Model the fold of this input.
Amino acid sequence: MLKTAAKQFCLYSGRCLASLSPAQRIIGHEKNLWVEYSALAIRHQAVNLGQGFPDFPPPQFLKDAWSEAVDIPSAHWYTRGQGYPRLVTALSDLYSPEFGRTINPMSEIMTSVGAYESLYAALTAFTDPGDEVTFTVV
Done:
């Protein structure tokens, strides 16, 4: 749980660095929707597919493909920050017909590590304290 008081930042080795305090804008945001969903899934013994908790191992062909991919040197490099070019191009090809126009994969599509990160980034980028935000679920 986040507190307003400063805490020491300690490494796994036990060595502590400078004291750190969370930014004021995140105080009170220690709970999130995904933590609540996980708790409900556990309580009701539901299969939680929302956050990558499959109850089966990946098929062998995926494990083999992964093993081959890690041997490719470029697989160990950072990609462009907005998403891997082949991926954003494929997403553009998929969604452009849905929008009735060509979506520029290099300037209009961004990938992230998950929905929570995307929502947080969008909200912090386009809202200010005191703004009212309304979500519509379709």
